[in-house]
C-alpha cells in the first residue's frame, strides 16, 4: 500500500512548460524591445535613406550591434525550443488521456499571452505611425516593397500562438474520443484554435461549456475585455 502524500496533490512539473513560455513572451517583452530596437533601426537605416541622423547614433558601433543581434538570436532560439517542447508535451499528455492538463495548459497560453499580442498590436500601430510621420507620407509609395516584410512579421507573431493552439488541438481530439464533440464541430473548433482572437474565445467555450472548467478565469478575462473596450471607446470619444 502506497503512503498518502502529505500537503495535498503535488504540482505537475509539466505545467512549467506553458507557464515559462507565457512568461518568456510577456514578462520579458520590454527586454526584447530593448534588444531589438537598435536592430530594427539598423534595418530602417537602409530601408529609409532619408533618416541620415541614424548614422550618428552610438549603437551603430559594430561590436555593440553584434552583441545586440546575438541577444535577439539567442532569445529567438530559446523561444523556438520552448515552443517545440510545449507541442511535444501536448501530444504526450493527450496520449495519456490527460484532458485536465491539456485544458489548463491551453488556458494558460491563451489567456496568458493576451498582453503580449496587445503589445504587438500597439507596437505595430506606433511603428507604422512613426514611419508615416517621419517620411511625411512618402512611406505609402514604398508599401509594395514592405508587403513581404509585413507578411513575415504577421506570420512570426502567428507562429507564437501555435503551442497554445496545439494544446487546443489535443483538447478537441480528446473531446471527440470522449463523445463531447462531433466531427464537424471538431473541425470548426480546430480552425478557431489557429485564428487570432477567436482562439481565446474558443478556448473559453471549450473549457467552460464542454468540461465545466475555468469559469472564474473566463469571467475575469471577459471582465478585462469589457473594461478595455470601454476605456478604448472613451479615449476615442475624447480624441474626437
Task: Outline the structure in words.
There is one protein chain. The protein has 240 residues and is mostly helical. It has helices spanning 16-26, 29-47, 62-95, 99-112, 114-134, 143-159, 162-177, 183-193, 198-210, 215-239. Helix 3 (62-95) runs parallel beside helix 7 (162-177) and helix 4 runs antiparallel to helix 9. The longest helix has 34 residues, at 62-95. The chain crosses the membrane at residues 21-43, 63-88, 108-133, 139-161, 181-198, 218-239.
List the helices and strands and how they pair.
Blueprint: H1 16-26, H2 29-47, H3 62-95, H4 99-112, H5 114-134, H6 143-159, H7 162-177, H8 183-193, H9 198-210, H10 215-239
Helix pairs in contact: 1-3, 1-4, 2-3, 3-7, 4-7, 4-9, 7-8, 7-9
Comma- or semicolon-separated keywords:
transmembrane helix; 10 helices; 75% helix; 240 residues; single chain; mainly alpha; membrane; DUF6652
Decide which structural class fits the backbone: mainly alpha
**What is the helical fraction, as a range of percent?**
over 70%
Give the DSSP E fraction (strand runs of 2 or more residues). Answer: under 5%
Number of strands: 0
Taking all Cα atoms into account, the compactness measure Rg is 22 Å
Q: Mean pLDDT, nearest integer?
A: 80
Order of helices and strands: HHHHHHHHHH
Q: Give the CA-CA distance, first to last residue.
A: 72 Å
Shape field: globular
What is the helix tally? 10
